[in-house]
Request: fold
Amino acid sequence: MATIACASSTILIFNNSKESRNGRSFFQVGSAGFESKGFIPFSAKCRKIKAMAPPTVSAPKRETDPKKRVVITGMGLVSVFGSDVDAYYNQLLDGVSGITPIDRFDVSDYSVRFAGQIRNFSSEGYIDGKSDRRLDDCWRYCLVAGLKALDDASLGKRVLDNMDKTRMGVLVGSAMGGVTAFSGGIEALVRKGHKKVSPFFIPYSITNMGSALLAIETGFMGPVYSISTACATANHCLCAAANHIRRGDADVMVAGGAESGVNPVGVGGFIACRALSQRNDEPHKASRPWDKNRDGFVIGEGAGVLIMESLEHAMKRGAKIVAEFLGGAATCDAHHLTTPRLDGLGVSSCIIKALYDAGVSPEEVNYVNAHATSTPAGDLAEINAIKNVFKNTSEIKMNGTKSMTGHGLGAAGGLEAIATIKAINTGWLHPTINQYDLEPAVTIDTVPNVKKQHQVNVAISNSFGFGGHNSVVVFAPFKP
Reply:
């Protein structure tokens, strides 16, 4: 594991391994690397953290044990482009904007009147009618995405009934949980008193319920819980799920994120935070990562779920493997409620730790699915972090899925993991749309406005959340 120490304007990042590659360190950050003395200079101030540096630093190796290698065998989603993975990615490749005026509730007096609102959603075949009417949309999206992912992995009911369900788990998180159920319960309490509060108020509000409902539906009795770290949620869930497989706790994990934030509380709350774009006259042009004229993110919703499986288990059952999960990491900026560190230190350390966990060098990475929310501070902080970690970005391509889908909050990492895996499988990167006037600091190819063909070697997908939560996951084509 790497440890980080800050002292005035210097950040120290150490690794506890014993050997070095060619007498030098593994990671390069900016123009400096991990020399045997073990430090990297940064121009930033932060609290002092004591740490001990070993005399040498070694490069990690990729996992070779089939019991610990984690592969992706299924994907499922609910998105602004529907609930079919291929249709979703084709829309992204075509550069279609899913941002439209909100018509789910009255927004006539709202300063923001558009979103990545899901329309014509159907849970038919996945949720019975009675439950469908009761459930918060967040959990409807979660159930459909999770069950579709299991179907995609050829893990339907008949197959599952012959498997050891104590070795199968669910880890699907949400940033806000059942917001509609929560606001409805509060409204009933205020207007009619506590006796009129629905018995489903608490169960359908709390953030763990997506995982619980999927477990109840499938009978999975392994690790079942949720993580809630704002917009970094889904990536945190993917990392934790993979670690359960690596440790031998489970053979199969259903993991990702779900969110339904396009409602009065969600939109009103983010307006109050002054986080949203107000480009009401041109909603399809509102989400514009790295553009000089960006003015905030566009709220979205949906669910993105992966089936993560040990290679050994997947091979035994003859599963289709679509990608390999190499590793991931989580850090915190420890800086501000909503604003990221502009120097990107928290993000830099997260990327470094994720690559170390994955057993790959920065030079192997040639695709970044960026967090890229279209906020003035966040976009540049992420760029600073990426440029700090990757010494040479000439071979790297980077895009922003949110330019078309909006920001799915706790679901964003799941939806973007699927986009990343589809890029690996198809050899095509979707564009970042609305690139009109790029920030001068952005010197990496952002795949502006038109898709590009690109053979992905190793990809990272970034997700960051309010509170300074950072999470990075690493994917690659599966090679036996």
Observations:
- The longest helix spans residues 137-152.
- The first strand starts at residue 2 and ends at 15.
- The CA atoms of residues 273 and 338 lie 9 Å apart.
- The two ends are 26 Å apart (CA to CA).
